[in-house]
Each structure stands twice: as C-alpha cells, then as structure tokens.
Amino acid sequence: MTYAVKLDVFEGPLDLLLHLISKERVNVAEVCIADVTEEYLRATAALGEVDLETASSFLVLAATLLELKSLKLLPSRTAVDPDLRLLLEERDRLLHRLVVYATFKQAAIRLGARLAENAGYHPRYAELPEDLAPSAPDVFRSLTAEKLARAAVRALTPPERPVVDTSHITRITVSLEEMVIRLKARLENEKLSSFRQLCSSARDRVEVVTALLAVLELFKDHAVDVEQESPFGEIAVRWTPRAHGAA
Amino acid sequence: MESRAAVLRHLEAVLFIADEPVPTADLAVLFEMPAHRVEELLQALQSDLEQAGRGIVLRAVAGGWRLATSPDSAPYLERFVGEQRHGRLSQAALETLAIVAYRQPISRGQLAEIRGVSSDGVLRTLISRGVVEEVGRDAGPGQAILYGTSQVFLERMGLDSLADLPSLADFMPDSKAVERMESGLGPGL
Prior knowledge:
The structure holds 2 protein chains of 2 kinds. Chain A is mainly alpha-helical. Chain A folds into 2 domains: 115 residues, no CATH class; 71 residues, Arc Repressor Mutant, subunit A. Chain A is 58% helix and 5% strand. Chain A has a 3-stranded antiparallel sheet with strand order 1-3-2. In chain A, a hairpin with a 6-residue loop joins strand 2 and strand 3. The two termini of chain A are 98 Å apart. In chain B, helix 1 crosses helix 3, helix 2 crosses helix 3 and helix 5 packs across helix 7. Chain B has 2 domains: 71 residues, Orthogonal Bundle (Arc Repressor Mutant, subunit A), CATH 1.10.10; 94 residues, Arc Repressor Mutant, subunit A (Orthogonal Bundle), CATH 1.10.10. Chain B has 9 helices and 5 strands, in the order αααββααβααββαα. The longest helix of chain B has 17 residues. In chain B, the strands form 2 sheets. In chain B, strands 3-5-4 form a 3-stranded antiparallel sheet. The termini of chain B are far apart. In chain B, 49% of the residues lie in helices and 13% in strands. In chain B, a hairpin with a 2-residue loop joins strand 1 and strand 2. The mean pLDDT of chain B is 87. Chain B is an alpha+beta fold. At the A-B interface, helix 2, helix 4 and helix 5 of A face strand 2, helix 5, helix 6, helix 8 and helix 9 of B.
C-alpha cells in the first residue's frame, strides 16, 4: 500500500500538481505522459472507493494535463486554432488556481503555527455558576422571614374548594328518581289524576319538566296510561298497577 | 468612587467569572468609567499577573479580555484532566480553515473550487471544534450555506479581530515560483 502512504501527503489534485511542478522542478509537459498519468491514476486508485468526488477531481485535472501535454506533441497547431486558444485559457485558469491554492497552502502553515503557539492558553469554558447564571436570577434575594412564614401558612392551609359560579344554572330541586317515587305514591293512592294536578306542588319549571319525564318513565314501564284528548288539553294519567308488576 | 486597587480587584473577579472574552466597552459600563481608563486598568492587571509570574494570564483576544492559564502550565493541566490535548488539525483542515478565514463568508462549493477537492469532511471537523460556523445563506440560487470563522477561532489564534490576520499577500508565491508553475504547465505561445 505504498500508494496510499504516498498519497497522504497530497490534499487533492492541485496539491499533487503543485508538488509535481514546484518540489520536483518538473515540467509537466516534459514528463512522459505515462508518468503523469500513472501518478494521477495512483492517486485515484488509492482514493477511488472512498471518495468518488475526490477521485474524479484528480481525473479531471489529469485530463487537462494530458491535453496540455498534447500541445507539445502537435507543433503544427497555431494560435488561431480555436481549440488551442481554449486550451491556453484552460492553462491560464489552472495556473491561477495553482497560485491561489499555493497561497492558501502557505497561509495554512502559518495558521497552524499560530494555533500551536496559542494552544497552551486555556480559558475556562465552564458555564457560569448556577447562582450567577442570567437564566437563574437570585430568587432568594428579596425573601424575608415574614414572607416565608406567610408562604408556609398558605401552603399548610387546606385549599378551599374552587368555587364555580353556578348562578346561571337552575338548581335541580328534585331528581327524576325522587319524582318517579313521589308520583307513583300519589297515583297508587289517587288511581287517576291529571298532569296539571300532579304538577300542582311543583316549585318551578324544572320540577314540571322532571314530573313530565317521570310520567314518561312510568309510561315506559307500563305503570301508567297517558291520555290527552286535544292539543294543550288536560293530560290524564291513570295508574295501571298490573302491568307495572310485570315490568 | 472605588479606589484603583478595589476596581482592579473587582475587574479580576469579573474576568474570573466571565465565560467569554469581555469587551472593554462592557467593563466601562459596568464600572462606570471611561473606556480608556478601564483599558489602562486592564493592562495594569495584565502586567501585574505577568510580573508576579502567575499561572493565570490576561489576554486581549476576540474583541475582549479573558483570563487563561499560562502556556507553561499546559503540561500539568493536560495531566490533571488526564488527557492528551486533542491532536493537531490535519493539513486539509488547516487549508480549509485558512480559506474560510480569508474568504469568509464562503460556500462549500467555493471552498472545493479553491482546494480542487471536496472539503465537506474537514469542514465538519472544523465546525465540531467550534472554529468555523454557519454565518448565513447565499442570496443566489440554491441559497448555499455560507461559513465563517467563530469567536473561538480568534481566541484559539490569539487574535483580537480578523483584521489582525496576517495579510494574504504575504503568502502569495513569489514571481519566481509562479514562473516555475507556469512553465511547469507546459508551453505557452
């Protein structure tokens, strides 16, 4: 795996190119195509499966280099050749990128040195102590013994039942069950009555409604028969105990 | 009005508790005195600590003042926390950091263009170390995330502000080197 070891030195195709040109003082155009290609293919092979993007960036540059190299091999080409001009433009672009890259590579070395120089200074990154942290203001600052005592009294007093205002709700003075029992007793005694009479003792509209529901309940149980001869007329309620017993 | 010695003491206490560099202006407001006066006191505190050979130093970094341990105590601190200081940044990370530092705000695409290779991995490393952070979105299509250096970067670099970075021109290859690159790329016209 000598390739991989060697490749670790290079941080990308530009780095490799810079190395080829500057360090070894090699004219890429002078180098055998095979050498250049091999160098790049090595780089690519070592990266290949790991990082497709890096690998392709190596290949793109290799292709450009090979094209540049071909300039040398085709001396018949002239400056007016549009392909040639394009290639020369590409060469200028590449040179520009190399210069920019070389600049940052150098800057990186300086940055690294500066980071190393400053690595020995350790500031505290700890958070503020809890009592000083802005999110936790000192809640005890305004506390007095008296306030604490009052709070204790409040805490130890059994809580009052929350009062819900029910004044708008009509109170149910008698339940349906009670009404059923009450009417049953009356009807057992009177055998026949009218709804108006049954409601005569009702204190409010709700009790009338409850009475009506109770009558319907009794009717459902076949304890009574209900008869009304005309709309809004008297409702006769008749006790029918035999059916009631069966229910 | 507190005495000079008292203010120096309070200043030290405030800086002790601060968890990031404190700008001079903030301290001026806190102590109700002109900034230049606070600055003078801070420098006095700085040189007091230095001359006394203390294990704590006062640094003017990242736009503020912050107490830090003295570098020569570093080996003991590392042993104390039982851990080797995490390794140096790789060359790739340093290159990426340099490009972000000088070209911020910068997108990942622009980074890759300069380095000739994707920098996503190293960028993540730099972000996780807190020296690089997202600083915005490109207004152009795609709204690429833009990256820049953080306050932690300045502090780690011992820089007061980005303006204190050495000029990029200092790192440009000289004309000879450029010529060599040019001829290295093959014949011109």
